[in-house]
C-alpha cells in the first residue's frame, strides 16, 4: 500500500537563528550543493567531536528523535548512503540533522599516520553531505509511505528548493519521525491538516494528501 502526504509547516512564533548552529556545518537555503571555505584539515580535526556529541541528548538541546541507517542521496551521481537522522529542540527551535555513518566515529582512524592522512582526505567530503536544517526554513514536507519498503521524506524550503530525499527503512520509522516532529511544533506550530485523522472510537489512522499551513 502506498501513501502520499504533502505537509506545510506552521510556526506560530518566528525564530531567528542564533550562534548555536556552527556556520561550518549549517546548510543554508536547502541546497543540494554547499559552498564552504573551511579547510578539510580544520573540519576533520575541530568539528567531529563536538558535532557528534551534539547529536545526542545534552544540556543545550533535547533529542526528540534519532534513527541510524537512514538513507540519503546527497548528490545525484552517488548512491544513497546510510546515516544518522535526528530531530533536536533547542532555544532556536527545531533542528533536523542527518550525518553520514562515516562521520559518526570521528574523522581519523586508529591506524598508522599515513593511513590516517588518506582517511582524513577521504572522509572530509562527507561534511559536504551532512544536513543541518532549521524547521523554520521548511515550508513543505512531501512524504511517500510504502508499507513494503519503508518511506521517503522530501523537505522543501521557503525558496522552493528541495533537500535530498530521506529514505526510512522498513517499519514504522517514518511515521514515528513525523509524530515527533508534530509534537515538537506544539504549542506554537502545527501540521495542517494534522498527522493523524480520528476515526471510529478514537482510533487514529494516517491519511493522504497532507500539507502544512503557514
From TrEMBL:
Top-level division of the source organism's lineage: Eukaryota
Keywords: GTPase activation
InterPro entries reported for this sequence: SGSM1/2, SGSM1/2_RBD
Record-level Gene Ontology MF annotations: GTPase activator activity
Ribosomal protein keyword on record: no
CDD domains: PH_RUTBC (cd15784)
Domain (Small G protein signalling modulator 1/2 Rab-binding) ranges: 62-201
Segments crossing the lipid bilayer: none
Record protein name field: Small G protein signaling modulator 1
Species name: Caerostris extrusa
Amino acid at each position: 500500500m502506498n501513501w502520499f502526504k504533502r505537509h506545510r509547516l506552521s510556526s506560530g512564533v518566528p525564530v531567528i537563528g542564533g550562534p548555536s548552529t556552527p556556520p561550518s556545518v549549517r546548510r543554508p537555503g536547502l541546497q543540494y550543493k554547499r559552498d564552504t571555505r573551511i579547510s578539510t584539515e580544520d573540519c576533520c580535526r575541530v568539528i567531529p567531536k563536538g558535532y557528534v556529541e551534539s547529536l545526542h541528548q545534552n544540556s543545550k538541546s533535547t533529542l526528540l528523535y534519532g534513527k541510524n541507517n537512514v538513507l540519503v542521496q546527497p548528490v545525484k551521481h552517488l548512491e544513497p548512503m546510510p546515516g544518522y537522522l535526528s530531530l533536536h529542540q533547542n532555544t532556536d527551535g527545531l533542528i533536523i540533522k542527518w550525518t553520514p555513518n562515516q562521520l559518526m566515529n570521528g574523522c581519523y582512524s586508529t591506524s598508522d599516520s599515513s593511513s590516517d592522512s588518506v582517511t582524513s582526505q577521504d572522509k572530509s567530503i562527507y561534511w559536504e553531505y551532512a544536513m543541518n536544517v532549521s524547521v523554520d526554513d521548511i515550508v513543505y514536507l512531501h512524504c511517500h509511505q510504502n508499507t513494503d519498503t519503508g518511506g521517503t521524506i522530501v523537505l522543501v524550503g521557503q525558496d522552493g528548493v528541495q533537500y535530498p530525499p530521506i529514505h526510512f527503512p522498513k517499519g514504522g520509522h517514518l511515521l514515528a519521525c513525523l509524530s515527533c516532529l508534530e509534537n515538537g511544533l506544539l504549542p506554537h506550530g502545527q501540521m495542517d491538516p494534522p498527522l493523524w485523522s480520528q476515526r471510529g472510537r478514537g482510533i487514529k489512522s494516517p491519511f493522504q494528501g497532507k500539507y502544512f499551513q503557514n
